[in-house]
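Everyone, carefully examine this protein record:
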Amino acid sequence: MSESATLPGVLDGVRVLEIGHFVAAPFCTRLLADLGAEVVKIEPLRGDPVRQWGAQVDGKSLWWSVHGRNKQSIALDLKSEEGRRIAIDLAQKCDVVVENFRPGQLTKMGLGPDVLREGNRDLIVAHISGYGQTGPGKDRAAFGVIGEAVGGLRYLTDHPPGTSDLPPVRVGISVGDSLAGLYAALGIVSALWRRERRGSDQRYQTVDVALTESVLSLMEGMLPEFGALGRIKQPTGGAIATAAPSNAYPSKQGEFVLIAANSEPLFAALAELMDRRDLIGHERFAGNAERVANAWELDRIITRWSQSLDTQQLLDALESAGIPSSKVYTAEDIATDEQYRARGMVREVADPRFGDVLHPGIVPHFPGAPGSVRNTGPETGADGVRIVRELLGYDAGKIAQLQQSGVLK
């Protein structure tokens, strides 16, 4: 490991308490932990439910290796008074608390923001919920897929109208949760900056992120187009509604290759490559607007050409012509990609449960101090005793009593 990889992360010195479960809050805190923050995750005694998700080896989740990485785990019974007291004591030692229960749930548990700020008035509290902490829909149940539906994404991931009776396609990951986690991390870093530069201000100590709003914020021109023109943005399958040609095209083996030749020079280069110079300046393809209007015809022409070439031949030809293109990557393609490997975006990490495991790298990239995976997802409560002893100053007798009473694992 290089010296730069062992340097403190950009958020070194920031301590975060996670009272989260499933995906959104834990994803947020993983991002912060990857950037050097010290993250203490409170789990129920049985562990975060995500520990049971995805492929398992000997009953252990491979997903958890990444989902819980660079964190410390303490397992508490938050239904008990003593468990809640430990959470409050921990909050007093932290800069940030991140949670993703339904609005008001922490308050019902006796862990509302006012309680968590006992003795720590500068504490930043980040809430991640389905619909936000206010408004008539705040109490509605939601997971990431609901956020994707209400935010408009699921409608747009469908095939073009009239081409399929199948349900709108899911992106394939919990993108609504992850987006909310990203926005929460941005809000937290912004609040920390504000506190550092301008001092404490209660107006900037609460971060409120909704799954629905996180997805909606990515919807580009969807709202202004509807507001001004009454136009409802429609799904376009693999194509881009505003630029052409840009789609996935099959090779001779049936593998799909993305081709994005949606500027005048790139379209001319693609036409030359296909030996279809007649397309250059043709009235149906003369400019982007014309190509978008006739995208189906253009896609059929490109498909006939792409299907005549092996995948690698197709990729080599496109690259030689300087046309943005790529095979649609599988996990195997990602794992062996030289660019990802060179930048540490695919890296082998030692996990005590599995041996060497492939992990995604750390984003954003700081070239002088690229960050490291300090530890993989810990066992449930693995750090609890050390945390209450070193951070809270609990003595051996008190720790033993908490363990015997089932408050601390």
About this structure: The two ends are 34 Å apart (CA to CA). The chain has two domains: 4-217+339-404, 246-250+256-327. The mean pLDDT is 96.
